[in-house]
Amino acid sequence: MTEKALRLGTRRSKLAMAQSGQVADAVSQVTGRPVELVEITTYGDTSREHLAQIGGTGVFVAALREALLRGDVDFAVHSLKDLPTAQHEGLVLAATPVREDPRDVIVARDARKFTDLPSGARIGTGAPRRMAQLNAYARTHGLEIETVPIRGNVDTRIGYVRSGELDAVVLAAAGLNRVGRIDEVTDFLSVDTVLPAPGQGALAIECAADNAALIAALAELDDPLTRAAVTAERSLLAALEAGCSAPVGALADLLADGQTVKEMRLRGVVGTTDGSTLVQLSTTGPVPQTHEAALALGRELATEMLAQGAAGLMGERAH
Description:
Helix content is 31%, strand content 24%. The chain has a 5-stranded mixed sheet with strand order 2-1-3-10-4, with helices on both faces. Strands 7-6-8-5-9 form a 5-stranded mixed sheet, sandwiched between helices. A 3-stranded antiparallel sheet has the order 11-12-13. 46% of the residues are buried. The protein is of the alpha/beta class. Mean pLDDT is 88; it is low at 48-56. α8 (224-239) packs parallel to α9 (291-307).
């Protein structure tokens, strides 16, 4: 007799279905059980408001978590950057698989790079974080750009460029990779120019805290270095008291000496959306060996950023 299929809760978007499908295959391999996708519509999918207005944090996650807690699904896959930083009672982050490319990318008309865009170019993005850093870069390099708030899936966003409404849009490399459209990218933005969102490019596999057998099985998909990096990034975000709609960028990367990973560098940025003021700092230390050490790395950098005036740049403080 074949074992009952595991039910994986996923959002309905093309990107969510693609990344959930990839996780489903991996879970099938480690458990030997079939996995079926259960599509769940979230408030973030149906609302047409800008993310910053509907609260950003958790709008794509709440319905999936409710389905988990009700037992309608066995586990759920989220884009880690959509996940609120506070741990949800009754649920556990069972695995963070190996991270995809964390960078932001540009899809522009005429295959242009960011620095080749015409004067006054209109660049679409829904993220205050991207606006702040692109505008800051433009200011310091004498570029004239206008950032335009947009929403929508990959097709909608790239459509604004194809129709000529916008000169370029900013998207996450990981998402385009997962839906097989990375060849449409005209420029990869260096993390020195635009730091990604905390956790960008990483997935979170969440399940009920009392399902010990499933937690143990899913743990085989966990990548300890990815987990340490995203834990530090999200700790920074939490210590700045910021939701995922706040203009905060963070990236923890590993500094290697040949094949040996020696240290972890955590970089953080917060800024006003017009790019006139940025607080950008970094710290380097040993690779965190525990969850607590990774949390501490993020908190320490946040404390330094707050001392340099980061709090005043956050706009609406998240409550």
